[in-house]
């Protein structure tokens, strides 16, 4: 297990501009995540969790502050450079399980595609670890929401990206699928993944190694 943080956010500020005012979604946020740990961004809806996750992924750029991943300054990159970096070094999962998969690719083909992008062939043992090995030749439309979530997590972890970012992994799932999703996060942690997860689900918070509480865009003790 690594002892140094893989991801470091320092002094993050992010504003949204309306016709009437400037709304600060994040204000002076510091956060860090380490390999082999689950870091949960917790807080009520509107607290800034998903905004911070998108900044960590390089999808958006903060108005102020820096984000370092694997020693690289994500905030100093152009939008194009961030997209390239994200494809090779970051696994990002949307809240809707189906949104993470392409309808015309099988589960195994998703893993192969992720491996090709990152220059590393996927291992079929990974699917067995996440209990989806029997789904290798299935298309997303034939999978349950929970199975889609685990398939997406498998693709995200191919070639050990620096960080895996997961937005509300249990929000769209039934109770049993949610429990399986939480167990999957634990398995990925044991594989040494650096996991950052947004959630207000107590079961997700319970398995976290580190919890960062956000409220009105600020970190609370």
Describe the overall structure.
This protein is α/β, with parallel strands linked by helices and 221 residues long. The chain has a single domain (34-62, 78-220), classed as Rossmann fold (3-Layer(aba) Sandwich). The protein has seven helices and ten strands. A six-stranded mixed sheet has the order 6-7-8-3-9-10, sandwiched between helices. The chain has a four-stranded antiparallel sheet with strand order 2-1-4-5, covered by helices on one side. α3 packs parallel to α5 and α5 (145-157) runs parallel beside α6. The chain is globular and about 50 Å long.
Structural class: alpha/beta
Helix content: 25-40%
Count structural domains. Answer: 1
Q: What count of helical segments does DSSP give?
A: 7
Radius of gyration: 17 Å
Count the E strands: 10
Do you know the CATH architecture? 3-Layer(aba) Sandwich
Along the chain, the helix and strand elements come as: EEEHEEHEHHHEHEHEE
Low-confidence stretches: none
Q: What's the level 1 CATH class?
A: Alpha Beta
Q: In what order do the strands lie side by side in the largest sheet?
A: 6-7-8-3-9-10
Please describe the topology of this protein.
Layout: E1 5-17, E2 22-34, E3 37-42, H1 49-56, E4 64-69, E5 72-73, H2 79-89, E6 90-93, H3 107-118, H4 124-129, H5 145-157, E7 163-167, H6 175-190, E8 194-198, H7 202-206, E9 210-215, E10 218-220
Helix pairs in contact: 3-5, 5-6
């Amino acid at each position: 297990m690594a002892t140094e943080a893989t991801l470091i956010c320092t002094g993050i500020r992010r504003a949204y501009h309306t016709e009437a005012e400037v709304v600060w979604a994040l204000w002076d946020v510091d956060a860090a995540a380490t390999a082999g740990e689950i870091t949960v961004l917790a807080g009520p809806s509107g607290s800034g969790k998903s905004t911070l996750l998108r900044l960590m992924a390089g999808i958006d750029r903060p108005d102020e502050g820096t984000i370092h991943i694997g020693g690289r300054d994500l905030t100093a990159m152009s939008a194009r450079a961030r997209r390239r970096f994200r494809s090779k070094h970051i696994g990002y999962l949307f809240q809707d399980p189906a949104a993470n998969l392409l309808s015309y690719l099988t589960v195994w083909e998703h893993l192969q595609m992720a491996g090709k992008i990152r220059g590393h062939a996927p291992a079929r043992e990974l699917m067995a670890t996440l209990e989806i090995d029997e789904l290798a030749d299935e298309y997303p439309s034939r999978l349950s929401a929970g199975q889609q979530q685990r398939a997406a997590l498998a693709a995200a972890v191919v070639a050990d990206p620096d960080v895996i970012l997961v937005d509300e992994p249990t929000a769209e799932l039934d109770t049993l699928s949610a429990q399986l999703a939480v167990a999957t996060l634990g398995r990925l942690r044991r594989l040494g993944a650096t996991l950052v997860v947004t959630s207000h689900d107590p079961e997700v918070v319970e398995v976290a190694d580190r919890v960062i509480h956000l409220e009105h865009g600020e970190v609370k003790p």
